[in-house]
Specification:
Blueprint (H helix, E strand, L loop, with lengths): L8 H8 L3 H8 L7 H13 L16 E8 L10 H17 L3 E8 L3 H9 L5 E5 L5 H8 L5 E4 L10 E4 L1 H14 L5 E6 L4 H16 L9 E4 L3 H13 L7 E4 L2 H13 L9 E3 L6 H4 L6 E4 L1 H17 L8 E4 L1 E4 L16 E4 L2 E4 L1
Parallel strand pairs: 1-2, 1-3, 3-4, 4-5, 5-11, 6-7, 6-8, 8-9
Antiparallel strand pairs: 10-12, 13-14
Length: 362
């Protein structure tokens, strides 16, 4: 028997133990519904992967878009990335103004998704853009269950029926790996993070796929996992070095903040960048250009992502009938600086292996 793939309000009502009328009120942000009942309905809608019809804009909502800055755990959405998020907001603001919308920013820190959904269900706005950096697949489905036009940025799921605008991690990591190979590095490592963030996972997967694509052999010993904050990355790297970590010749770091913590730890052990170990980051945060040595990194136009999110949302708000999900990946560019100068560089620096401040000839 073929499994049911399309669910109705009546199905949600049965799963939540309420009436179809209650479900309709919850999904349309109407009525005096208790928080517990509303949460139960939204959870049932998420569990059934219910895809609602687009909610009609409320008369008092025309012209307002809300950006949800969501930090579930704060390991990636924090002060270290304030510039990153600001760039998203700049892109959204410019496009929202051009299209006649006001943009409001609301932060949610440490809140459950049902609580966030409860708030946006009755919010006087035309549509929602949500920062999905720390959101899981189930989180996305909970917010979808509200039935408001919504676009998610800084995350991406192939099989989730939702609107996404994200960076093209696969292409970006391919540029990193091709650069390291061009620079003459044969032993390439990866500084991953065990923090649950979709883009981190996508970059980890892309690291292995592109190594195979470029004919590079990766030693598992050259892959380490650290916290995603500056202090956490530094502490975890110090611990690994203290335990005798065998260093690769060059490392791709999951993002710039991790690269900063990683580099600080290497220096404390007398390991020079790039003479002993080359490093490439991801995000092109402002400090990357001014640190010594300047960090080679990936640049993605966060403003472009914000711009496209508003464009898609505007189409959803004004659509006369339900629209199929739109998923956009924005390309990246490699910004080459001094942190990954390798053996193939025309001005190679002498290489040495240093441990605990003691230099040994490589």
């Amino acid at each position: 028997m073929k499994a049911k793939t399309s669910f109705t309000i009546r199905d949600i009502a049965g799963a939540a133990g309420v009436s179809p009328a209650t479900v309709s009120l919850v999904l349309n942000g109407k009525g005096e519904i208790s928080g517990l009942t509303r949460a139960r309905v939204l959870e049932a809608a998420a569990r059934l992967n219910y895809v609602p019809r687009l909610a009609k804009p409320r008369p008092d909502a025309t012209g307002t878009i809300r950006f949800l800055k969501i930090a579930k755990h704060g390991h990636t959405v924090n002060r270290d990335h304030s510039v990153f998020v600001s760039d998203y907001i700049d892109g959204m603001s410019a496009e929202a103004t051009r299209r006649g919308y006001a943009l409001e920013v609301v932060s949610h820190e440490g809140q459950g998704m049902t609580a966030v959904a409860d708030m946006i269900a009755v919010a006087p706005v035309s549509g929602i853009i949500a920062l999905g950096t720390e959101m899981s697949e189930s989180d996305i489905r909970v917010l979808q269950g509200v039935g408001r036009p919504i676009v998610f940025i800084d995350t991406f799921y192939d099989v989730v029926e939702a609107n996404f605008v994200n960076m093209n991690n696969e292409d970006a990591v391919h540029q990193v790996m091709a650069r390291l190979r061009q620079q003459g590095f044969s032993r390439i490592g990866f500084v991953a993070s065990h923090v649950e963030t979709t883009n981190f996972q996508l970059r980890h997967q892309a690291f292995h796929r592109n190594a195979a694509r470029l004919g590079l052999t990766i030693d598992p010993a050259h892959i380490i996992s650290v916290e995603s904050t500056f202090d956490g990355a530094h502490t975890d790297t110090v611990k690994a070095l203290s335990e005798g970590l065998e260093l690769a010749d060059a490392y791709f770091c999951t993002n710039d903040v991790i690269a900063y913590g990683f580099i600080k730890a290497l220096r404390e052990f007398g390991i020079r960048i790039p003479e002993d170990v080359g490093v490439i980051g991801f995000d092109n945060l402002p400090l990357s250009a001014t640190m010594e040595p300047a960090l080679t990194t990936i640049d993605v136009s966060k403003r472009k992502i914000g711009n496209l999110a508003v464009t898609i949302l505007d189409d959803l708000i004004n659509a006369a009938e339900p629209q199929r999900p739109v998923k956009i990946l924005v390309g990246a560019s490699l910004v080459t600086r001094a942190s990954d100068r390798g053996p193939a560089d025309p001005r190679p620096a002498p290489r040495a292996v240093r441990r605990r401040g003691v230099a040994q000839t490589a």
